[in-house]
Structure formats: structure tokens, C-alpha cells
Amino acid sequence: xxxxxxxxxxxxxxxxxxxxxxxxxxxxxxxxxxxxxxxxxxxxxxxxxxxxxxxxxxxxxxxxxxxxxxxxxxxxxxxxxxxxxxxxxxxxxxxxxxxxxxxxxxxxxxxxxxxxxxxxxxxxxxxxxxxxxxxxxxxxxxxxxxxxxxxxxxxxxxxxxxxxxxxxxxxxxxxxxxxxxxxxxxxxxxxxxxxxxxxxxxxxxxxxxxxxxxxxxxxxxxxxxxxxxxxxxxxxxxxxxxxxxxxxxxxxxxxxxxxxxxxxxxxxxxxxxxxxxxxxxxxxxxxxxxxxxxxxxxxxxxxxxxxxxxxxxxxxxxxxxxxxxxxxxxxxxxxxxxxxxxxxxxxxxxxxxxxxxxxxxxxxxxxxxxxxxxxxxxxxxxxxxxxxxxxxxxxxxx
Length: 398
What we know:
Layout: E1 2-3, H1 5-20, E2 26-33, E3 36-47, E4 52-53, E5 59-61, H2 67-79, E6 100-104, E7 111-114, H3 121-126, H4 140-147, H5 160-169, H6 185-197, H7 201-213, E8 234-236, E9 242-244, H8 246-249, E10 266-268, H9 269-280, E11 284-285, E12 288-289, H10 293-299, H11 310-313, E13 326-328, E14 333-335, H12 338-341, E15 350-353, E16 359-363, E17 368-373, E18 376-377, H13 384-394, E19 396-397
Parallel strand pairs: 8-18
Antiparallel strand pairs: 1-19, 2-3, 2-17, 3-4, 5-10, 6-7, 8-9, 11-12, 13-14, 14-15, 15-16, 16-17
Domain Beta-lactamase-related: 11-380
Enzyme class: hydrolase
Organism: Phytohabitans kaempferiae
């Protein structure tokens, strides 16, 4: 079994057509197969206005592909016995002891109920905590987040600890463990890592994940001397064309007050491919072990209530991602039934993506890891989730 480069070059032609049409700024893409780099491609611009091309060392904002890193960090502490998946979050962030659940009413006067059980670590990892994001704009609680300054980011100057205290005071969407919703769970998990380890999140990541793996270009801020390597950020306009967005483009250029375990990291194709290879290798890559293989296997099982898929228990906020046949583990979406997804994939495949159109997945059945990086919001503007998998799967031959 091999990855046929000539067949996978069809993907390059597809992506180049999007660049030529002004719908994609540029891209970096790689496939690792059986521990070896099987394919790598780059195209378009990291900065269209300056005419700077995408290069192998281009740095991207990961946005929500930060979440799997935070999940791995938390499981490092679980393996060491510092944390337990059953631990109440309030043990580390006391404000969550008084959390309430939304029942009815407007954002200004919500009626709430008490918790029937506490938010636990596994709820944060599986996004079944009841926490949300303001940018969903689909529920009164989303409006509460937005009104308080938590839409796409956090209020200026607030630390992660201060943000967590605020989130604990907002109603939850549902009782923990009963449904799935995308929200600030990984940010709260990052704060748990800080409290449990006694280290700031950036230091813990550097010491326990990035340093051992040799991920030299991954962190919360780009060094000033490397700033020219950071890709510009683009958003899609009403006409389908893309425009530079310097407001979002400041992310990664200054040290953040809030170290976001949900969306704060920057990285390169090579660095994140190494992270993906770590997962495919059962927690080990090139002789460096970060997690045990059984921990990785446990993380990448479906942890949704009743073994359901996202279509049954999830809040449909990601139209570009298949919901039928897809579950969620401890930090990753997991394919339960590839036929139900109607996207070429393998049962047991897992990974995640971001609002900035960055995507990665690990396919244990094919011994394959794929990483795609760009800087385009929203991620629903292009059918990248399905097309990337189509092109990769048709290239696996032999």
C-alpha cells in the first residue's frame, strides 16, 4: 500500500484553481504514511498584498487545532496521576462549583437550574460540558457571551484565570454529559492544566509537548525575528472573494493576556505533522514518547452519551463537517461509520479543524496522517473537509 504522488497531485490542481479564482490565499499540505513523508505541497501566497509566496516554513494561526494539543497536555497529567477524568472542574477552578444550567428566558434575565452533577474533566475533553461560544449566535446563552466580550476572542487584558471565572458565571446550555456543544471547554481545560501543574500553559506546552517533539515553531506568539514568516489572515466577503483581515491577523504577533487552550497557538506544517505522527504512533514519534498507546486509544474512542453520533446529540454549528456517523472522543472527532458520513474515510479515523480552515486527521487503518494549513475564515466557505479526504483516499493504492 502506497500513496501515489501523481494521483495526489490532483489535489494541488484543485487548490491552485481556488487560488487562481481568488477564493483561497494559499496553502501548505502534507501526508505522512507509515512514518515517512509521502507527499508535501505548497501554493499561493502567505501574503497576497506583498506578493510573498507560501514556503515550507510559513507559520499559521492554528485556531481550534490548538484544542487537540491541550487535550494531550491534560492526558499527560492524567497518566501521571495528577488529574483524573472524573475530577470535578471546581476542584481546580472553584467558581464552577456554583454553575447553573439555562432553562428559559431572555439573555438579560435567564431562568436557570442547579447542576444535577458537576462538570468533570471528561466533559471538557469531549465538549459535553454545556459551555459555548458567543460567535454561534444561536442561543440566548451565546448572546450572554457576546455581550460580555466573548465572541471570537476574550476581553483585552483578562488572564485565562479571569476568563474562566467569568464563564463559570454564565449559564450552561445543558446538564453536563447530556449533549455536545462546541465552546470554551478547551480553554477551561487549559486552566486546569495550569493549576494542576503549577505552570503557565505556554510553559507546560513547551516543556512537556513541544520541546520533546522538536516543535520549535509552535507557541502562542511568533518571535519578532520570524514575523515575516507568519501568514496574513483572510476572510470571505459576500461575493465569495477574499479580503485581508488585519484585525484577526494580529493574533500570534503579541503576547496574549489569555493563553487560550482553544485557539491560541501558531505552528508550521512540519511541526503539526509531527504532532499528528505522535498520535498515529500511539503517543510516540521517532523514539520520543509523550503518552502511552492505551491512553491515545482511549482518547480516540467515542465518548458521546449513549455512544451516539454528533447528528443525534450535537448542536449543528459546523455545516462543513459531517455529523452523521461521526462521534467525539477526548479532544477529537472520531469516524464511527464512514459510510454514513458520505465522505471517503476510514472507520476509526480521527482529527479536528478550525474556523480558519486548518484541518488535520489521523487514519490508523491506512497508517496515515494528513495536515492542511491556510488562513481563511469562515471554514464553511469552501468544501475542504470533503475534498481533501476524497483526494487523499483516491491516492492510496497497492
